[in-house]
Amino acid sequence: MLVISISATAGPSGRCCWRSRQLRASEAHIQVIDTTGQHVYQPGLLYLPFNQQDPHGIVRPTRRLLHKRIELLEGTVESIDVAARSVAVSGDSFAYDWLVLATGAQLEPERVPGLDGAHHFYDMEHALGLRETLRNFKGGRIVVGPARKTYKCPSAPLEFVLLLNDHLRRQGLRERTELYYFSPHPAIFGGERLARIMQPLFEARGILTALNFNLEEIDNSTLHAHGGASLEFDLAVVVPPHGVGQAISEAGLGDDGWVSADPYTLEVTAQEQIFALGDVTDLDVPKTGAVAHYQAQAVVDGLVAGIRGAGRVRPYNGRVMCLVETGEGRATIMSFDYDKEGRTSPPNRYYHWAKAVVNRLYWITIPTGRV
């Protein structure tokens, strides 16, 4: 019997696991390696600092999201030996025949000196800490932005600052607060279509910007950028640098920090019987859960065809679809693929409620592979 190991952060990889049920139990044994055994619905973290989300509502045990045939291994992936086809997990070694890397993008705050003097909302602990800080905030300058160009959910800091603008107005603090958004890009967002929508919103709401701001360090309540620019703050919300993590990096599976994979089949470059999907890849698509979700079908097709020696592989076509909060009870949509420029929409209430519905229905649809 073949062993398929999926080194995962659960979530979108759940679709890969559930669709792998196309393989009979006699054909393959599927193992999922998960660090904590708890899956956090990360898009929900955006709302925690504003007390618009119950933290318990965005966490589920990973075991409950997997089919009963799938074995769950809880532990930290310490190393990957591609020559021996084995994965070391918390002191134990597990052999595999096929490997799927779905480990996501890891937070690496240590890459920016002084980043512990700032807040972020990219994990549960820090999102709740930011909620408490905002409860006690009485006014001043708040700066928000990403430390690097590449990070997961690239629209999230834009969404955050617009929701923060709403929050401050509700609290009667907007007139006493100066809001700054900084970005390492020459525009407020790396993608031109979304930047065209966001720029006038920022201008209309009095949100100031510091562009081409490549954060170097934080010191004495000041952001310092390469080239000498600086921003003083009373409260800083900074998306930390992201990376693939030590195990994948040391295994030689990355190229400039990310795993090189075929953009259509998701097969890892120069490796046999290894796939990668989601944030861990170097593909020219946003690092979002929706992208991993769409990629999962191509990975499953590749696994089934590889194991059986035949079968149709439906390639990933670069599909991206994101619902993006724009504040004031509105949202926009951004969708495209490798071949089509795609579309955006003027912010409206329909997409805001559509995003709320997606968030509410997540647990019974996405991880279980029903959609």
Descriptive notes:
The chain has helices at residues 13-19, 62-65, 124-135, 156-170, 192-204, 246-250, 289-308, 349-365, and strands at residues 2-8, 28-34, 38-40, 59-61, 71-74, 77-81, 86-89, 92-95, 98-102, 106-107, 140-146, 177-182, 208-210, 215-218, 222-225, 230-232, 235-239, 242-243, 254-255, 258-259, 274-276, 320-327, 330-336, 343-344. With 371 residues, the protein is an alpha/beta fold. It has 2 domains: 2-49 and 58-105 and 244-318, FAD/NAD(P)-binding domain (3-Layer(bba) Sandwich), CATH 3.50.50.60; 107-241, FAD/NAD(P)-binding domain (3-Layer(bba) Sandwich). Strands 5-2-1-9-21 form a 5-stranded parallel sheet, with helices on one face. The longest helix has 20 residues, at 289-308.
Descriptive keywords:
2 domains, FAD/NAD(P)-binding domain, four-stranded parallel sheet, alpha/beta, 24 strands, globular, single chain, five-stranded parallel sheet
Q: Please give the CATH class of the largest domain.
A: Alpha Beta
Residues in helices, as a percent range: 25-40%
Ranges where pLDDT stays below 50 over 5 or more residues in a row are none
DSSP helix count?
Answer: 8
Write the CATH homologous superfamily of the largest domain: FAD/NAD(P)-binding domain
Q: What does the overall shape look like?
A: globular
The rounded Rg comes to 21 Å
**How many extended strands?**
24
**CATH architectural designation of the largest domain:** 3-Layer(bba) Sandwich
- Tally of separate domains: 2
CA-CA gap between termini: 29 Å
Strand arrangement, largest sheet?
Answer: 5-2-1-9-21
The chain-level mean pLDDT equals 91
Q: Mind describing the biggest β-sheet? A: 5 strands, parallel
CATH third-tier fold name of the largest domain: FAD/NAD(P)-binding domain
Helix/sheet category = alpha/beta
